[in-house]
Amino acid sequence: MTEYMRSSDAFTWSMESDPRLRSTVVTVLLLDRSPDWEAMRARFEAISAELPMFRQCVVESPLGAPPRWEPCPDFDPDFHMRRVGAAAPGTVDTVLEMARVAAMDDFDRARPLWEATLVEGLADGGAAVVCRFHHALTDGVGAVEIAGRLFDLTPEPEARPAATVGVDPETRGAWWREYLDPIGFGARQATATVTDVVRSVPGLAFDALRHPVSTATGAVETAASVYRTVRPVNETGSALMTERSSVRHLDVHEVPLEKLRQAGHAGGGSLNDAFVAGVAGGLRRYHEKHGADVGDLHLCMPINLRTADDDPGGNRITLMRFDVPVGESDPAQRIAEIHRRTTRVRDERSLPHTQLIAAAMNLVPRWYVGAVLRHVDFLCSDVPGIPVPVYVGGARILAQYAFGPTIGAAVNVTLLGYVDVCELGIDVDTGAIADVDVFHACLVDGFDEVLALA
């Protein structure tokens, strides 16, 4: 049976008709030395055999069906894995420049949507790995699960069974299958919809008879929740960060994990609330530096919907947009208010209907989707990472950073935990924020004032 993209993945895939909405995720691993290349390469090849999408490419479907995953007949691991020497001066900035170019570059859509580049010869004797993948391949939590298959707990690489390919790359259906499969897909979707309706009608009727007011109220609340999820945003909350471009700047910052968690608790919230409050504080300071007033700004935050039964591939998130009090100068009050608003968003009635909403959004013109996303001010993504030191190809990982795509916002700050540190990957649209050094300094100060609560 043909494997079609989930509606949320298809949405991520199709909105790239606007290059400013490119959905490339980049991760950077900093290593204490050069790893065993053959061991690392074998591990990546094993991952590509275990997870079919790492050997598949995306093919457009006729008759209005979603794009589909098909085995790539020309899959070549050496195209996806590169080994290069670091250019002078061989610092972390050198690696970040390579990651920046990778973030702006498009994928070869005739091939699987991932690449990994080993960068050797850094000035401190270390090395780095720059990985990039399309967001349709997986989300942040799924990527951490995949990384668990790449990493070892000791410097000695664990012996694992030889890779076995789960699908035959040469298998390809007859030409008429391209039209027959979409018809079958449409029939299955219609059948599933009718079945769900038939199953739900008796319960709805029973509830409506016994509790007519609460049933009607629940329906209205669900409709309102769906509207809040897809509502148009006609202008940025910031009067300063209004322009958008396809040029990115990447930067990093580190904060102590336990201290950030304590700060969140001190403000009546969680680690995630303190994280968002730190970014918000940096944005407030940045606006003050430029003499611009700032109140609430539009935040886009991924909400994790992944369960223990889901495989690592594909997106199991939904993007929720809501306003946060960036103008609030008291970090404790900011954390408390962010906690209140974030809790409300996590309890939205629309969350179980994410795929239906994404399917509907796929019917909306791309220019409209782009216009909405380009009015979001910033993104924050909190990804639980690996709590213990790990190794790849015998080399110890010193730090790992994730850079999520801006998808129309001025900046995306992604928190990836590693051991006892929160590693922040900062992806800036330079069309919105040109003075990136000033912004970075403001962001550091914003986190310092939050951490002071601990």
Structure report:
- By secondary structure, this protein is an alpha+beta fold.
- It is 40% helix and 22% strand.
- The chain has 13 helices and 15 strands.
- It has helices spanning 7-14, 37-50, 77-80, 92-104, 140-150, 177-210, 212-230, 257-266, 271-289, 331-346, 354-361, 366-373, 436-451; strands spanning 3-4, 24-31, 56-59, 68-71, 81-85, 114-120, 127-134, 248-256, 296-304, 317-325, 378-386, 391-392, 395-403, 411-418, 421-429.
- It has a six-stranded mixed β-sheet with strand order 5-6-7-2-13-12. It has a six-stranded mixed β-sheet with strand order 8-15-14-11-9-10, sandwiched between helices.
- α8 (257-266) crosses α9.
- The protein is globular.
- Residues 166-172 and 192-198 have low confidence and may be disordered.
- Its EC number is 2.3.1.20.
- GO terms for molecular function: diacylglycerol O-acyltransferase activity.
- Keywords: Acyltransferase, Glycerol metabolism, Lipid biosynthesis, Lipid metabolism, Transferase.
Low-confidence regions: 166-172, 192-198
Q: Compute the CA-based radius of gyration.
A: 23 Å
Please indicate the percent range of residues in DSSP E strands (runs of 2 or more).
15-25%
Strand order of the largest sheet: 5-6-7-2-13-12
Main beta sheet strand tally, sense and closure: 6 strands, mixed
Cα end-to-end separation: 54 Å
Give the proportion of residues in helices: 25-40%
Content-based structural category: alpha+beta
The beta-strand count equals 15
SSE sequence, one letter per element: EHEHEEHEHEEHHHEHHEEHHHEEEEEH
What count of helical segments does DSSP give? 13
Give the overall silhouette: globular
GO biological process, one term: lipid metabolic process
Catalytic activity: an acyl-CoA + a 1,2-diacyl-sn-glycerol = a triacyl-sn-glycerol + CoA
Protein name: diacylglycerol O-acyltransferase
Enzyme class: transferase
